[in-house]
Amino acid sequence: MTRPIALITGASRGLGRDAALALAARGSDLILTYRQRADEAQAVVDAAQRLGARAVALPLDVGRSDTFAAFTAAVQAALRDTWGRAHFDHLVNNAGMGVYAAFAETTEAQFDELMNVHFKGPFFLTQALLPLMADGGRILNVSSGLARFALPGYAAYAAMKGAMEVLTRYQAKELGPRRIAVNILAPGAIETDFGGGAVRDNRELNAFIASQTALGRVGLPQDIGRAVAALLSDDLGWVNAQRVEASGGMFV
């Protein structure tokens, strides 16, 4: 049986890494992207291969839409040379970064960086990759719990995620004729290095979030990795145009 191929942006670390390894453990091959740390990306490739997956890592700055044509050509070459195939099956728009700034103090440069990475980038990258996606494939965008609840300091970041949630519904509608399902996953607070690792390393913050979460703890990267794998599985093939929050019941 042919293994599906998943392309995951920002998979050299954090949630992207755990998503990649969860997919590899469940029978997917991988195309991973990284922005700077080729060594970290190679470590994920090596780990995926130990799980029985074929995997390659390609450089990509999601904030640079002028590089997408060259990246698409690199994906096409990787598909041909590694798999002897012309198409991949699943796209996970995961790459991102955080900016913490009060609304009144957010600069235009910060806003533009967030927009390029979290909205413009996924918009036009997905567009560029569509010719390489298999009919019947799946796209999974990534949002945030911050698009549902408001915490000061994340106005611009959360606004971009809100835009991605609207885009997801339009993508599902317009890509339906190709049987491409599109959903968006919204993680809650997770113990990663995101935002300087505050949720992971600040005990008071960690305890506060746990106290506001129905399941009584802060999320772990593997919680999100498993959610990604589930949403891309055949079992959930009829789920389309949906926002799925994986937060343990944060702020309910």
Describe this structure in words.
With 252 residues, the protein is of the alpha/beta class. The protein has a single domain, classed as 3-Layer(aba) Sandwich (Rossmann fold), CATH 3.40.50. Helices cover 43% and strands 17% of the residues. The protein has helices spanning 14-25, 38-50, 68-83, 108-129, 155-175, 198-201, 203-211, 221-231; strands at residues 5-8, 29-34, 55-59, 88-93, 133-142, 181-187, 243-246. A seven-stranded parallel β-sheet has the order 3-2-1-4-5-6-7, with helices on both faces. Helix 4 packs parallel to helix 5. The longest helix is centred in the middle third of the chain and has 22 residues, at 108-129. It is globular and about 50 Å long. It starts with a strand and ends in a 6-residue tail after the last strand.
Biggest sheet: strands, sense, closure?
A: 7 strands, parallel
CATH architecture: 3-Layer(aba) Sandwich
**End-to-end distance, in Å?**
42 Å
Binned strand content: 15-25%
Tally of distinct domains = 1
* Major sheet strand order: 3-2-1-4-5-6-7
**SSE-based structural type:** alpha/beta
**Into which percent range does the helicity of residues fall?**
40-55%
In round numbers, the mean pLDDT is: 95
